[in-house]
Design a protein that fits this description.
eight-stranded antiparallel beta barrel; 31% strand
Length: 255
């Protein structure tokens, strides 16, 4: 069975020193439905899920640090982004990893929104039982990952860099994804605003967010606050500003 990916007619090279790969030579795609996610929090370390994406010697996971920080704040009700994202993955967010076997024991991996056509350049190989792959092209449901209430409609962004590490999967996979994305300010604020409006109390300076004093926090008010602007500051330069995010995902093979 041919790969579920849309295959380039030319050659795709990966972001490492791997040989150039002709995707048309890849076959036997296995598709895994992602059904659980773990973002950094006070028990899952930011550094554990980080990778040096821009080759400057610093492990990158800025949005993971943001997720960990906001989940530790004393809201009126606890914020558990992993639990809410996992609930989305099992209801209204179709996020998949597909793995195709290629010559020379290489793998071509697609991180996609459902079965949408996606030309993947994420290439790697298995070494001592661990599959590591790098590239640029992928999709990430950014609002699903930062939705505090579980009520926000999922929306996806393209990745600007993507690294995947996992044991060679059978019927299930557990993978570390470290990725870079751009233009996350509006979707992240959109995803978090309903939770913040419902749970940001006076002890967390609610009045400083509520600029018009109407008792309701809008997306514009959340976005304008210095605290939000300090959190949503790009940490990478990848042909333009970008944000790093590391997370752990679990998937089950689709039949």
């Amino acid at each position: 069975m041919k790969s579920a990916f849309v295959l380039l007619l030319g050659l795709i090279g990966c972001a490492t020193d791997e040989p150039m790969l002709d995707p048309a030579t890849c076959d036997g795609s296995r598709v895994f439905q992602l059904d659980a996610v773990e973002l950094p929090n006070h028990t899952v370390g930011v550094r554990e899920l980080a990778v040096d994406l821009d080759d400057n010697g610093i492990r990158d996971n800025w949005l993971g640090a943001v997720a960990s920080s906001i989940q530790s704040m004393p809201f009126d009700h606890p914020l558990d982004l992993s639990a809410t994202a996992t609930a989305h993955l099992n209801t209204d967010t179709d996020w998949r990893i597909s793995i195709a076997e290629c010559p020379d024991d290489q793998r071509l991996i697609s991180l996609s929104a459902g079965d949408e056509p996606l030309v993947s350049d994420v290439v790697g190989r298995v070494f001592e039982g661990t599959l590591r792959a790098t590239g640029q092209v992928g999709r990430v449901p950014i609002t699903t990952l930062f939705d505090g209430t579980g009520m926000v409609v999922p929306s996806f962004l393209d990745t600007a860099r993507l690294e995947i590490e996992m044991a060679e999967p059978t019927d299930e996979l557990s993978a570390r994804l470290v990725l870079a994305v751009r233009d996350i300010e509006a979707p992240v604020v959109h995803a978090l605003t309903p939770f913040l409006d419902a749970n940001l109390g006076e002890d967390l300076s609610r009045d400083s967010f509520d600029l018009d004093g109407d008792g309701t926090l809008s997306e514009a008010e959340i976005a304008a606050h210095p605290f939000t602007r300090s959190l949503l500051t790009p940490d990478l330069q990848l042909s333009g500003p970008a944000y790093s995010l590391g997370l752990q995902v679990h998937g089950t093979a689709r039949r």
